[in-house]
């Protein structure tokens, strides 16, 4: 039924969550539990890849906000990568690029981790 | 007075008047016939023709007696047991009276010899007692025969009475008034049918079926006493002058009237046979009556449970009824009900009601969870015929619970719980018990589901009312009317996806002559968003007047919201000021959709200044990154503010309305008034969306159209406004 899914991948110390479909109020809990899972596993370096993400609502954006502070306190980060233009526009309008590291590609995001660049 | 009519006289109950008349007539006829005999034929039999007439008068006399007794008994209709009791009492009274009459000195000296006066008086008295008893016997058994009335049954009973009456004609013949051949024809054509009808009627004993078992035993006893009384008279001495032996009584009756004697004989045969058939049937019914009672109880128990399905009752009452049913139906000695907690969603069933056993005992002796899980899995009852041998039963299990059946309450999609029933003997449950218990469980399931549906319906209605109120309150938080301005016209609307939403717009005329406007969108939808929307309204109404500057206002708002917003909730907003004197628009954007400005020439601009949503950063970043945008008004400029519900509205194939369509639409309708432009934009949006009744997201639209500073001074305008730089 749900047209949203999260796929896990690991590259070195970085966990990549590849989103697929539409992230809205109904599907947000799935991403929430996925990130929660990473946190429980001690994977604090996360890249959320949006190559297959077709839509995001404000409730979907809220998921990132719910975790970012905590991950940064734990020494990790949530970076966002490979967003489609339309989805990026939503992130951009809200000013997410000022808070999150948003990379054009997953590789670029991974590189950011290896260089140790974080926001703020 | 009342008209005399046969029907009036013979229909019971008799009126007081006619009862009196009949009693009088009976007494006159009875004494009259006796006196007539005394005067005419005490020494010998009266002449034959006179005798036939005399017998008719006698029959009429006793016909009246029948009517009187019938009327008397009608007034006190008897239950089956009482009928036998009445017959027994009447028999005893009759026996005592007969003995009393026989005590009068004077007897038949020799057969065939002329009788004395006393013999005739004795005959008359004995006749009235014996016939009276026979009437009571027949009339009381009539109530039993007609217990369950059918057309055929009624006919048979009437025919019996008719043929018994006709049989008396044999008596006329016996008086020697008719030839032998006719006498034989009379005998065959009346007595035989009467006997046949007696046989038919004595098998009408349907009252037995409805009698409780204990009462049956009692009626058997009464019936045996009646039988003993009726047949016992033969055991009495036949040669003693004072005896109830038929040989002693019969000569008196025969002497008095042969037709009546025949009636007495037939009545006694009927009474005897009816009592006999009743007693025998009762005896045969006794062993099965327990089963019959059980099935009657079962139907009653089922009915009381079924009644609960229909009415809305509180759950405790329903549960109590469910556990009482198998016990009342005689299918168990104790029962209890364990169900899954409806609200908490717990997977552990809880005992909610017990009958004839304490919840504590039931819970300690039996592993409710394990037994429930088994029946929930298989959806079939579990039968433990010998509980002591089962590992789910405590060793210390009581004597009163030796066998157990656990029936699942199996609803369409889930198993609601289980009904536990026990018996105090091992192997206490037979196949029919299991079927009955299965049926109880099915009924219980239905009742519980029904009760829950009702409950949730009530709850839904309550919530709908609450949301309706919330919606009204929220509507009042939005401007009830927009200010009427000379230099600018305004139009706005907001629609929630649900009853309440997170969109907000407002206009506030400031003391400085400027006015402040805001369009905000709380992330998410529904109730939680609505609360933050209300907070936003409070902030706008209070802060905008004090610090109208866009950057300062949004900074304050961000701080205020930061204290209450959840981590994953944020508010995007556009806040701005319209300065009439400077013909200028100043606004700042906190993560909100950019404002669209279209001038008269159709040139469009999206004011996309920097700024992050409120609540996303609660420190310096928010203020540091916020930019202000200026726009100098030209007459005909249209400013369109909106929430993402507008641009993200989708059509049937999933396409978004988007910025291009929005701007194109504004450009097309830029010459319209603010209200017309607002309406046309919504119309285009709805046409794009197609046949959808509701919005998938809250949407708000605010249109401002600049007409230009009027050359006339504003009526409300203060001199200081124009003077200020």
What does this structure look like?
The complex is a heterodimer of chains A (120) and B (725). Helix content of chain A is 41%, strand content 32%. With 120 residues, chain A is an alpha/beta fold. With 725 residues, chain B is α+β, with helices and mostly antiparallel strands. In chain B, helix 3 runs antiparallel to helix 6 (151-177). Chain B is elongated. Classes of the chains: A alpha/beta (120), B alpha+beta (725).
Overall residue-averaged pLDDT value of chain A: 91
The gross shape of chain B turns out to be elongated
Number of strands of chain A: 5
Strand content of chain A: 25-35%
Largest sheet of chain B: 5 strands, antiparallel
CATH architecture of chain A: 2-Layer Sandwich
Structural class category of chain B: alpha+beta
What is the makeup of the main sheet of chain A? 5 strands, mixed
The interface involving the most residues is between: A-B, 19 and 29 residues
Overall pLDDT metric of chain B: 85
Please report the number of helical segments of chain A.
4
Indicate the percent of residues in helices of chain A.
40-55%
Please count the beta strands of chain B (DSSP E, at least 2 residues each). Answer: 15
Distance from N terminus to C terminus of chain A (CA atoms, Å) equals 39 Å
Q: Report low-confidence residues of chain A grouped into runs of 5 or more.
A: none
Strand order of the largest sheet of chain B: 2-1-5-4-3
